[in-house]
Specification:
By secondary structure, the protein is mainly β. Helix content is 0%, strand content 31%. The protein is built from no helices and nine strands. Strands 5, 6, 7 and 9 form a four-stranded antiparallel beta sheet that branches. A three-stranded antiparallel beta sheet has the order 3-4-8, with no helix packed on it. The chain is elongated and about 50 Å long.
Amino acid sequence: MVSGDIIGLDPRLGPLQDNGSPVLTHALLAGSPAIDAGTNSGLAFDARGQPRTVNHPGVPNSLGSDGTDIGAFEVNPILTGTEARRGGNDMQVRFTTVSDKTYGVQCRPEAHTGLWTTLPGVISGTGGIVTYTHTNGAQFPRRFYRFFER
């Protein structure tokens, strides 16, 4: 066994896809033996430019691990919005997810006041970044979005 290799276990990887970087990556799915099983080897960021070591409090580190995940993708259970962009009449918002969770999206017209409106749909976590499309959301002068775990 080479240091950092795990032999004989299902790696629990998502599909090779755009998870928010210039290179395609495999997201680590919930229960992956690669979570908190490596070392950062002096690297501060993963292939997506996200912080390299995110030590999960609910996952015990493997022997010799500093809490870094093995591979090009570091799982981060903190829900984070990564992008909002107009797509024709729609707004597309992207955020990080964990594979065994489901999420919802809310919006409101002002940053600090007003009621949050829950938008339709339930988003299944992929372990990577997902895109939610707010149909006709671009018709409003402005919208503020937030994401929540269901």
